[in-house]
């Protein structure tokens, strides 16, 4: 399964000098009160205080169709240098897709707490995870 295989790869690295990067914030929104915006905004603020630039999908306008949000997420993610994962991301279809895209781009990834501590997992280049295409996993 995608989630189990992903965490087998976790070799955390500490960014030298606490590197500051442009992060895409990813997590569950659909089916959560206020689309989980308070948690997204809280973590965006915390990560910005650590010097990171944060692309926060909770800043997008309300009322779009899910597919439009995902198209925007893909566009935004391409302009980022890493992905920060909120609690509950594994239960979110959209967040798992965003993580797959980040892996295909070879981006470093980690939970929001890992990024706050500058402890992240280096990306898996080429979109492969233990010899399987990430886009087909899970």
Give a structural overview.
The chain has 138 residues and is an alpha/beta fold. The protein has one domain (2-136): Hypothetical protein PA1492 (Rossmann fold), CATH 3.40.50.10400. Helix content is 36%, strand content 18%. It has helices at residues 2-8, 37-49, 66-78, 93-104, 112-116; strands at 12-14, 22-26, 53-55, 82-85, 109-111, 119-121, 128-129, 132-133. The strands form three sheets. It has a four-stranded parallel beta sheet with strand order 3-2-4-5, sandwiched between helices. It has a two-stranded antiparallel ribbon with strand order 1-6. Strand 2, helix 2 (37-49) and strand 3 (53-55) form a beta-alpha-beta unit. Helix 3 (66-78) runs parallel beside helix 4. The chain is globular, with a radius of gyration of 14 Å. The termini are close together.
What tags apply to this protein structure?
single chain, 138 residues, alpha/beta, Rossmann fold, four-stranded parallel beta sheet, two-stranded antiparallel ribbon, globular
CATH architecture annotation name: 3-Layer(aba) Sandwich
How many individual helices?
A: 5
Radius of gyration: 14 Å
For the report, how would you describe the main beta sheet? 4 strands, parallel
Provide the CATH top-level class. Alpha Beta
Number of strands: 8
What topology, given as strand order, has the largest sheet? 3-2-4-5
Q: Uncertain regions: pLDDT < 50 for 5+ in a row?
A: 7-17, 125-138
List the domain count as a whole number. 1
CATH homologous superfamily grouping: Hypothetical protein PA1492
Molecular shape: globular
Secondary-structure element order, as H and E? HEEHEHEHEHEEE
Classify the fold: give the CATH topology: Rossmann fold
Structural class: alpha/beta
Q: Give the end-to-end Cα distance, rounded to a whole number of Å.
A: 5 Å
């Amino acid at each position: 399964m995608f989630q189990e295989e992903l965490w087998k790869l976790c070799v955390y690295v500490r960014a030298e000098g606490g590197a500051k990067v442009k992060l895409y914030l990813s997590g569950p929104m659909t089916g959560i009160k206020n689309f989980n915006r308070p948690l997204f905004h809280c973590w965006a603020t915390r990560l910005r205080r650590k010097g990171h630039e944060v692309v926060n999908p909770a800043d997008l306008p309300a009322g779009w169709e899910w597919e439009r949000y995902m198209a925007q997420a893909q566009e935004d993610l391409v302009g980022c240098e890493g992905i920060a994962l909120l609690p509950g991301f594994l239960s979110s279809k959209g967040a798992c897709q965003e993580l797959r895209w980040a892996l295909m781009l070879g981006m470093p990834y980690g939970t929001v707490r890992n990024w706050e501590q500058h402890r992240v997992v280096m990306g898996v280049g080429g979109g492969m995870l233990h010899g399987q295409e990430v886009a087909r996993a899970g």
